[in-house]
Amino acid sequence: MTSEAARPPEAGAVPDLAALTKVVARQRAELDRLQDLAATAVVVERAKGAVMAGTGCTPDAAHEELQRRARTARRTLLEECWITLGSLGPQNRTAAQPLPADVVTGPPSRSAAFAADPDSEALARFGQALVRVGGPQDLARCLLDHLPPDTGAAAVLIFTRLPAGGLELVGHAGVDDLLVQQWSRVPPLSGIAALDALDSGEARWLEDIDTDRRRYLLIGDPPEQWPTRAWLPVPTGRPAEVAVGILRRREGSFDPEVRHHLLGLVRLCAGPLKMFGIRQDPAVGASAAAVRTVFDRLAGSAVLLTPLRSPSGEVEDFRIDAATVDTSDAVGRRGRELVGQRFLECWPGTAGEPLWQGCLDTLVTGRPYESEAFVRQHVVAGVSELSTYSARVARLGDGLVVNWIRHDPSDRQEQRLADVQRLGNLGWANWHLVTGEVNWSSQVYAIFDRDPARGALPLAQLPGLALPEDMPAVARAVTELVRLGRPCDVPFRIATRDGIRHLRAVAEAVVDDRGTPVEVHGFVQDVTAQRSAELALVASERAILTQHGVLQAERTVAARLQDALLPLPKQPVRLAGLRVDIAYLPAQSGLNVGGDWFSAIELPDGDALFVVGDVAGHGIDAVAAMALLRFTAKGMVITGSSLTGALDRLNALLLHSRDAHGTATMVLARYNPRERRLVWAQAGHPPPLLLRDGKARYLDRPFGMLLGAGDTATYEEAECRLAPGDRLVLYTDGLVERPSESIDRGLDRLAAAAEVPDAGGSAPLDRLLGALLEPERRDDVCVVDIRVPEEGESPAA
Q: Element (H or E) spanning 328, and its range?
């Protein structure tokens, strides 16, 4: 049976089930996204609590510590949270520990490169998927789904150590029921690779089946179906209590990159295992096989469900652990093909129906739930047809049994008509103009809010039900229908006890052999919800247009303010014997201008001051903060403040000024032309690029955190001697950052572009920007290109 809802049909049309399925799919996707956000927040909060318990810090400090660890290890915040939760325990520190040394076995150059740059995107996707895991069985399936295809992995087994010393299978994926029964419990014998991995605390890589079978008892009948396998201890404590087995259909050794990746995946599994506890899943072992055998022999449609809970404990779906052979889902899977699938993925329309709430209530109270009759599509001999069902839900242990009962009324057509009227909120009506007989379906009485005991109204009295302003249109349509036999389709409104209803009446006349109307039949439909949606859509469109205008006006004001505060020189600037080229390019996407800025001025003592900065955010607030920092920084240095002293005061300004907020990065540089000495300091900003003798290198950054991040920030200065022909590039991060890649790649790209020899034609800065910038940029770009003339060369050259 298929769980599909029906759209209110037009007259004579069948329900558009395909369109409704798409709507349900979109709604389900949005619900999944919101649930992922909520589950992610729970993981982050628990990790913050772990850091607070270990260090005694505040929640904000715990969050900053997790972010710092993630940046240091080049992980996402969610990955760092999983690792932090997995490391909890009396013998473990809260901080994440390094990976085992056996990761880097093999060719040193490849393993070292991989250790420095792991497959972070794949680990990040796995870390995000873990927020939806509800138990060890889910974890095994999730892990198998996220193993890279090139590893050749075909199965995953998760064993936990028993108090008596043996092993218990708590999760599996990619293996059959017979193997699960055979290996559901393992006594504490020697020669078990999983036990060996747990006892030693080190991974066991079984890469030669002939050698491995002499040392270990290998899983599988025959074991040759998995010629290589790995047993990896999960770092949930010391000693390890959980081992994950990766079984491959590929021969040969595990590459160092593959080893590193598998250990990284298993390390992330420690957090979920700590959160939901290591327990035997109800669907694992011989009991599940017995239940499935029983279901295979049952008639009718029924499933055995196990609840899947979010990290907060709420039931977000059910897993199908057994299904009868007559049960089929929305895409035609039947019987055992449904085992392991999620209930709402098989029947997405159930999410908004009473059956779903009935399942949740039965799970909590234990009282069986029986639904009212409803219509579903049923596939008979390959042909889809509507059928009437009722559902019953009963609790079995920690799970539920749901079975659907199909009804076969004697008059199937009448039942279908009643269901269509109910689902479409419409009813049929018939008026015999000669005899005066009137017949209404029960749904018409409900639509008109009229007591059936009062009987149906003659056609001539129908306009009297409409509101006064709609009455003329209804009367005119009825007159043309009765006198001329002209069909009508008229909208009108009526007043009921629940308020105003919007109705639609569609009718046609039956004429005799002389063309005189003798009978009228048609239907009345309640379209209040549709009309309300239309009015809400119109109001929403107006609000969007208004908001768009406000944003456009804000952008215009911010852009003009930015132009006034940050004038861009049209020619190269000559300062202190240097040639300075400046470029500022706003972002190509979005409605907001940014907060990037520059300054290049000559100081009273003849030195040159160069400033490049970037305020977080966009819009008028960012432009205002930019102006505040730009002019304040210049004023401080001109009046004698050191570079570090200026940064200290600017940091305090952002923290305590009522007109400034957020954070900013900045680099300050002071150049003495007599000594060709450049002194510079920075606040969380990318380092300047120095090009000398055709070779590019980045200056070593002195210490300095971004402005506005904390009131205990300290800043240091660095010094660099420039030589004739040197080129120094100051820039904002928009020049080197691109979505979905590390900033290190952008820095390498900038250095490589700067080393390309000038070929004449356009200016060096124009060639540099042309080689680096993409057509569609998401951030502003500001560049100050400083060139020291060669001996005897004029700065104007």
A: none
- Report how far residue 274's alpha carbon sits from residue 251's, in angstroms, rounded to the nearest whole number: 34
Q: pLDDT: is 747 or 590 the higher one?
A: 747
Task: Identify the helix (H) or strand (E) that includes residue 361.
Answer: helix 354-365
Three-class secondary structure of residue 566 per DSSP: coil
Burial of 570 (0-12, 13-18, 19+ CB in 10 A): exposed
Q: Helix or strand or coil: residue 233?
A: strand
Give the residue, 370 or 413, on which the prediction is more confident: 370
pLDDT tens readout for residues 618-670: 767 777 788 888 888 888 988 889 999 999 999 988 888 766 667 899 999 99
Mean pLDDT over all residues of the chain?
80
| Strand order across the beta sheet in which 689-692 lies | 573-575, 578-585, 781-787, 727-731, 689-692, 695-698
Tens digits of residue pLDDT in 710-729: 888 899 999 999 999 999 99
Q: Round to whole Å and give the CA distance between 7 and 10.
A: 9
**What whole-number distance in Å separates Cα of residue 397 and Cα of residue 498?**
44
> Would you give the distance in Å from CA 547 to the centre of its chain?
26
Look up the CATH number of domain 74-276: 3.30.450.40
Ordered by start, the domain boundaries in the chain are 74-276, 425-526, 567-787
| Burial (Cβ within 10 Å: 0-12, 13-18, ≥19) of residue 235 | buried
Q: Which string of b and e fits 369-379 if b means at least 16 CB within 10 Å?
A: bebeebbbbbe
Q: DSSP label at 699?
A: P
Q: Which fold has domain 425-526?
A: Beta-Lactamase (3.30.450)
Strand partners, 235: none
Instruction: Give the whole-angstrom CA distance, residue 59 versus residue 776.
Output: 38
Query: Rounded CA gap, 75 and 265, in Å?
Result: 12
Query: Any idea what DSSP says for residue 703?
Result: P
Provide CB contacts within 8 A for 656, sequence distance 6+: none
Same fold, 74-276 and 425-526: yes
Nearest to 318 by CA among 343, 335, 290: 343
530 three-state secondary structure: helix
Q: What local confidence, expressed as pLDDT, does residue 103 receive?
A: 35
* Distance of alpha carbon 657 from alpha carbon 628, whole angstroms: 10
Which fold, 567-787? Phosphatase 2c; domain 1 (3.60.40)
Residue showing tokens 């680096």: 772
CA distances from 199 to 166, 206, 231, 247, 617 (A): 12, 16, 12, 20, 52
HSE toward the beta carbon, residue 562, CA cutoff 13 A: 26
Q: Is 171 helix (H, G, I), strand (E, B) or coil?
A: strand
Buried b (16+ CB within 10 A) or exposed e, 248-257: beeeeebbbb
